[in-house]
Amino acid sequence: MDQKYQHWLFALSAPTAAMNIEHGASYVDPKFYPNDPMLDLNDSWGIDSKSSLIDTVIRMIDNGHAEELSYPYYLWHQLSPLQWKNYIEDQEEERLVSLEFVSNSAAICGSGGIKSWDLSRMSFLCRIGVLNQWLTEEESLWFHSRIASRARHFYGSWQEYTAGFLIGRTFWLALGEERPEFKRYALSAKGGLDSNVSVALQLSTSPDSPYKHLPWDIDPTELEIEKPASLQEVDWS
Question: Where is the DUF1266 domain (predicted)?
Answer without folding.
Answer: 41-216
